[in-house]
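Worked example 3. Consider a protein that binds 2'-deoxycytidine-5'-monophosphate.
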Amino acid sequence: MKGPFVIAVDGPAASGKGTIAKRLGETYELPVLDTGLLYRAVGVLAQKAGDIDDPAACKAAAATLTADQLADPALRTREAGELASRAAVHPHVREALLAFQQTFAGQEGGAVLDGRDIGTVICPDAPAKLYVTARPEVRAERRWKQLRAQGEAVSLDEVRADIRRRDARDGRRDAAPMRPANDATLLDTSEMTIEQAADAARRIVEAARARWETS
Ligand code: DC
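Given these inputs, the predicted complex is written out as structure tokens:
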């Protein structure tokens, strides 16, 4: 029996995957989970509890996490992104968050999840998989504008360094490193507006949906 129509949207920080995931959710009337928020919440909680680099503190934070904590605007800050990337290297944190993500993905009717390991680890059987990328320079500029709009005083150089560090840590960790699934379609949004990227994503998903419907 075929499973629900799950759309996995993976990619590095500020690639456009979050916006694309939201647009796809609207188009297909599917619930959307930004899985980065889970790691951001764990990072912030573990930091408050003591030590972000202590696997036990991170695991304890992951175990107490509830869905209503994900709406906190404090999770959208630059610091929370860095804490998330550091908390996300611990395998026990990833294990503790697995069931929540897979339950969300298993909803009748389907779901959209965006993150780093959705197509590879969380939903390896997702009928539609995108890996959204953009050049690091383009991503840094996008994130810089976004952070400034949120009121964060940060230089473009600092954001460039953040992006480089996050790419390296997320891509080189042993536990579920960021990488495209073998069956993911790559979408480079470097030269695209949001509308163009959303349209390109819809075309990819439309083709996947047609295959899924006839499977
Ligand atoms: O998507 P984001 O920038 O909010 O993610 C924050 C960090 O969380 C990211 O640098 C790595 C981690 N993360 C992860 O390891 N796996 C996911 N599925 C989502 C995020």
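Take a moment to read the result before moving on. Residues 5-214 form a domain with the Rossmann fold fold (CATH 3.40.50.300). The beta strands are 6-10, 32-34, 111-115, 128-133, 185-188.
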